[in-house]
Every structure is written in C-alpha cells, then in structure tokens.
C-alpha cells in the first residue's frame, strides 16, 4: 500500500519501521521541523526524521507536501498537529493512539492514565476525523500499567501499536469495518510544569505516580531536586518534612511518607538519595521541602 507517514517523537518510530519492513510503500514522511536544543542551540531533527533518513525515505515538514494522488492512506502516530478536514477528505488516515478510546483522548494519554491510577491502558487504531480522537476503532490492544514508568509504558505501547496497525492493514475486515467508540470520554490535557511539581499537599500515591512520569521535582533548601525513582514507606514523617529514617531519605506528604531512591540535585548529576543526603546533611536533620 502507498502511504504517507506523519509522526514526530521516538514513540512513532516503531510504526514507521514496521511499515517499511512489511513492504508498504512509504512515499513521504511528514514530521515537525528541526528544533534548536541544548546550550549551543544546535538544530536537532526529530526521531522520526532521523529514522526516515536512515531508511532512505523522503521527508517533508508541511502537510501541503502531500500529493493526494500519490498515496492511498495516511498513517499518523503522535504527529503533534491537527490534520485539517479538507486533507482528510482527500486522504483517509489511520491513527495509532496510545489509550483505550474514548478514555484519554488528547495530548498526554500515557501520563494521564498513570496519574489517574488506571489499571490498564492500550492502543487503539482509529480512523482520523476532524474532531480530536473521536474516530471509529478498527482494533485495540490492552496492557496492564502496573508500576511502569511513562517511558517504559510508552515503549511498550509503541511496539504494540506498530503490530496492531500492521494487523489492520493486512485484514480487510478490520480495515473496512471499524466500530464506533463506546463509553465515557475523558481528555488527556497537556502536561504543564506544575504537573511534575511534587508538593507536601500531594498524597503519597500521587507523589509516586508523578515520579513515574519522568521529570518530577521538588524543592529542599530552595534548591530543585529532580526525582527519578521512589517507593512508599510506612514510616511516620510530618507533612512538608524531609528527613532520614533507617537509611531511607523520606519526604512527608499529606497522606504518608515517600522514600526517595534516585535523585538529581540542582547543578549536579543523578545519584542515590542516600548518597546525596550523607554528603550534605546529618543523620538527625529535618528539613522543610516544598
């Protein structure tokens, strides 16, 4: 099948690679333009662009680059922009979406599922419509969330989505007979800086889930402390207090204590919370955190 592929982040790469491996003719890859990153502000290509070039595929940045007479189908995976209705009218498109629709329509379905404490999530292969993630479902596949981080879960869903899409493309019954979404819709709003800020008023459960997102942080002694791994503790620690108990570095939340495992102090490298505490604080110290 002659397809145009639209995607940007690392999570979209497995589907692109799977399409090529399965023999589909990817005539064009549309991705977001190179962005300036890092201290040197060097232009950096998206993961999808890098993968496409390695596969010898043609890359474009504008939807207007699509020749509607050249392709039979569009495949969209985390492209990062809305596809306008006039283009959808000319090129039917399938979307690999990382949730069990209609739950978690929108920009951050994996992270919102973790924050909400969902037991399971999955991927849905849907036909794109003008409205956000409302299209009929051709196939869905489910996975347990358990204690997975957002990074681990996204990798799992990316691989699952790639295989599910190939199944839909290879199965006329699935491709031609999608079902209307059923159930209550929820929306996965974009993540903001405050989404990742763990505060004393957070519950221990929310603090742990936020840490699993990647990018979580708090402040101790007015210095930012990035959180990479943590676990629940049965120790009693007052809300807003950071201390060390039986070798664990603990923070007290509104509903109990959380033990910090891997952290990165502001201006330093990633290390164990225990090593950081021993290098900066005494055994009996109690500090305020926010």
Keywords:
290 residues; alpha/beta; Rossmann fold; Methionyl-tRNA Fmet Formyltransferase, Chain A, domain 2; 2 domains; seven-stranded mixed beta sheet; seven-stranded antiparallel beta sheet; 8 helices; 18 strands; 26% helix
Q: What do these coordinates show?
A:
The chain is an alpha/beta fold and 290 residues long. It has 2 domains: 2-188, Rossmann fold (3-Layer(aba) Sandwich), CATH 3.40.50; 193-288, Methionyl-tRNA Fmet Formyltransferase, Chain A, domain 2 (Roll), CATH 3.10.25. It is built from 8 helices and 18 strands. It has helices at 13-21, 47-54, 85-90, 109-116, 150-170, 172-176, 204-213, 273-280; strands spanning 2-7, 25-30, 35-37, 42-44, 59-60, 73-77, 93-97, 105-106, 120-127, 137-144, 187-188, 216-220, 223-233, 241-245, 248-253, 256-265, 271-272, 286-288. Helix 1 (13-21) packs parallel to helix 5 (150-170). The longest helix is centred in the middle third of the chain and has 21 residues, at 150-170.
Q: What is the highest CATH level, the class of the largest domain?
A: Alpha Beta
Structural domains: how many: 2
- The assigned structural class equals alpha/beta
The mean pLDDT is 95
Helical run tally = 8
How many distinct beta strands?
18
The name of the CATH topology of the largest domain is: Rossmann fold
